[in-house]
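Quick one: structure tokens for this chain, please?
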Amino acid sequence: MHEADIRFLKLALALARQGTGTCWPNPSVGCVIVKDGRIVGRGRTAPGGRPHAERAALDQAGTATRGATAYVSLEPCCHHGQTPPCADALIEAGIARVVVPIVDPHPNVSGGGFEALRTAGLIVETGLLAQEAEDVLSGFLTRVRLGRPWVTLKLATSFDGRIATASGHSQWITGPEARRWVHAMRARHDAVMVGAGTVRADDPSLTVRDLGVTHQPVRIAVSRRLDLPLMSNLARTARDVPVWLCHGPDADASLVEAWNGVGAELLTCQLTGRQLNLTSVLMELGQKGLTRVFCEGGGALAASLLAEGLVDELVGFTAGLAIGAEGRPGVGALGLDRLDNGRRFRLVESRAVGSDVMHRWVAQHESE
């Protein structure tokens, strides 16, 4: 049954991946129920986090659950929240065997789901496709383990690493296919984050467009002093799509009031010297429930995140265009004097996207 287990569990993980960016603060989980080698039910966590994947799959399977195997991408919950425990639901449905890759490290679960299932006489098998599950659930797991969301830093640059000409002209370095990919990536994250300079220079909307997506990520701007234009796209649409502003404790009270007035949510974060402490920023976002943040610039924010070791994933879109040394760099000054002090990332994917190249990297652990 090992090959069949892999096949069905891969399907559960694929279902989980489909819900990424829509379920926070809950994890996006997939569940597949199999009876006599045939799929009788499948489900994933619904947008907003409920119902859970197991409940959706059980409802689809109906009475066929007796003696069946459930393949779930994360340990079933065992605590009473806004919905009953999924472990209890699997037991009551007569599931005989459960195959799950990893434990849920959340303190409300943390092995309790497996214990409940085994106590009720179910066969529980774990460890299969564990690394794949870690990848799919990286945002949720990072928030539980570190208290902050997973951070993806996206850079769209010329071949020589520039994001604009010396005059600031930047639209468009990459082609329409790459920009469409970026919108799809936004949709798979809970939030899109930029620095104050990007808001002032580009007046971005930071929404997902032209993909038929109804769910929009939270839009975050990091600005110590809140010196952002109150006639910007973010301000004008804050009541339609959430806008969160991360600012310092010394931000002008009148600006706090003004942004509150247009519908933005204000998050006061700590300072380190004269700059916002980005660890504090991300911990605040984690407290608010975010699990995955897509950072789109600018260069100063990118440099600060990299310098503080807060980038988990790098996504680059590189165009076949050279701008020259006078152009604006994609990453601000890092102050490195030796390459040994730079954090290395491991290449996990590269491909042509239209006339550009997309390359994706994840942070290396010290042991790698």
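The two ends are 33 Å apart (CA to CA).
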